[in-house]
Amino acid sequence: MERLLKLALLHDLEEAITGDLTPQDKESRGENIVMVQKIAAREQLLSYFPKENQRVYRELWSELENEKSKEAQLVHELDKLEMALQAKEYAKGGIETTKLKEFYESSKAAIRDPKLKRLLDEILSPK
């Protein structure tokens, strides 16, 4: 549980600097630029960590980025689930569903865990 929480917090800390980029944002900026921005954000954040912990957290970020563990995969899938929830809220607020299709499709493609898939289906079902 502790590892899962650390990974989730690291993911959100990075996004606090880079922003929570949509697939369209990443495409328009370019993969290389996004990667450079992510690395710069991580290094900026790591500079605030005690020196003796920086290596461990750098490894956790690598684990998260490469989805090397079950915990990292779960954080990635939970992030996609949250994205679908946010898109659903945007739809309730009047944003056209066609503009949100990319978010829903990205979530469907990324979520493999059966329980999360059921939650996603519930989120995406018309109510």
- Helical content band: over 70%
Shape: globular
Total number of beta strands: 0
Order of helices and strands: HHHHHHH
Structural Rg: 16 Å
pLDDT under 50 segments (min length 5)?
Answer: none
Strand percent estimate: under 5%
Average pLDDT works out at 91
Tally of alpha and pi helices: 7
Q: Could you give a short account of the major beta sheet?
A: none
User: How far do the termini sit from each other?
Assistant: 33 Å
List the helices and strands and how they pair.
Blueprint: H1 2-18, H2 23-29, H3 31-46, H4 51-65, H5 70-92, H6 97-110, H7 114-124
What does this structure look like?
The protein is an all-alpha fold. Helix content is 81%, strand content 0%. It has 2 domains: 1-66; 73-127. It has helices spanning 2-18, 23-29, 31-46, 51-65, 70-92, 97-110, 114-124. Helix 5 packs parallel to helix 7 (114-124). It is globular, with a radius of gyration of 16 Å. The model has no long low-confidence stretch (mean pLDDT 91).
